Amino acid sequence: MKTTSQDKFNKLKQLLLNLKSCAIAYSGGLDSTFLIKVAYDALGKNALAVTATSSTYPQRELADAKQFAEEIGIQHLIIESEELDITEFSDNSPDRCYYCKKELFKKIQQIAKDHHLNVVLDGSNADDTLDYRPGARARSELGVRSPLKEVGLTKQEIRELSSSLHLKSSEKPAFACLASRFPYGVKITKERLKQIEAAEEYLFSLGIRQCRVRYHDRIARIEVLPDDIPTILTHAQKIIKRFKTLGFTYITLDLQGYRTGSLNEVLGK
User: Fold this and answer.
1) How far apart are CA 179 and CA 132, in angstroms?
2) Which domains, ranges and CATH numbers included, belong to the chain?
3) What distance in Å separates the CA atoms of residue 200 and residue 213, rounded to the nearest whole number?
């Protein structure tokens, strides 16, 4: 018999009740917002949301995280976790995310201990096994649990359930930290992160909701959904002018369009 999303939702609520208390790594995105909502409904003051700020985390995302947590009512703690201080991260090896997640989860584990909370959770879902996710190794080593993944909830199911709970995040586009815009081996710096963030903010200002600006030294490679390609072409001259002021020499549009993990495509080779 097929397990429905409602079955998985009920299983998730029971799983959280069984945990009794938790600290949740909360980015403000679709998955972690859904998780903190369900956890708060199940556990009340025994659920804590923890958001880590850093150079790779845009101000737009931090504002969303604060707003969503306030709307939900969960206790929300904001900490600093500067990944660029970790050499293995800033040097941008293929296992960059492992070092980032390990540092983050250790900090949240200490917070959980200080608040007498039983476990640390993150918002990984069942679809996350389909892409290269070195951060999963840090989760496994430190005993961090992923309830959405454990009950088998997919991204689409989480979006639908979020809509049924009237969460604004149900319509939020997927987001990954700004470090994901850099090809492996290219040094990640605060200046380059600001360059990418400003470029993407400009595209957002044109009405594009889902985009990535991939960094290739003097080249900016823009990824948008197919329906947004006409918008890019309509505003091409303005985009070129703005991106050049940010330090790019060449501005390109990727004809394959937006896709998660596009910089992982070289790993198999």
Assistant:
1) 15
2) 5-171 (3.40.50.620), 178-264 (3.30.300)
3) 6
188 C-beta neighbours (distance < 10 Å), count: 22
Backbone torsions φ then ψ of 79, nearest 5 degrees: -125, 170
Rounded to an integer, what distance in angstroms lies between the CA atom of residue 107 and that of residue 200? 29
Contact 92, 185 (CB under 8 A): yes
* Amino acid present at 81: S
- For 32-83, where are the E strands, in sequence order? 47-53, 75-80
Sheet holding 75-80, edge to edge: 75-80, 47-53, 22-25, 119-121
Give the SS3 label for residue 214.
Answer: strand
pTM: 0.89
**119-121 and 22-25: which strand pairing?**
parallel
- Please name the helix (run of DSSP H) or strand (run of DSSP E) that holds residue 212, with its range, or none: strand 211-216
Tens digit of pLDDT per residue, the chain (269 long)?
568 999 999 999 999 999 999 999 999 999 999 999 999 999 999 999 999 998 898 888 999 999 999 999 999 999 988 889 889 889 998 888 899 999 999 999 999 999 999 999 999 999 877 666 777 888 889 899 999 999 999 999 999 999 999 998 888 888 888 999 999 999 999 999 999 999 999 999 999 989 999 999 999 999 999 999 999 999 999 999 999 999 999 999 999 988 776 666 766 64
Secondary structure (DSSP) of 153-168: --HHHHHHHHHHTT-G
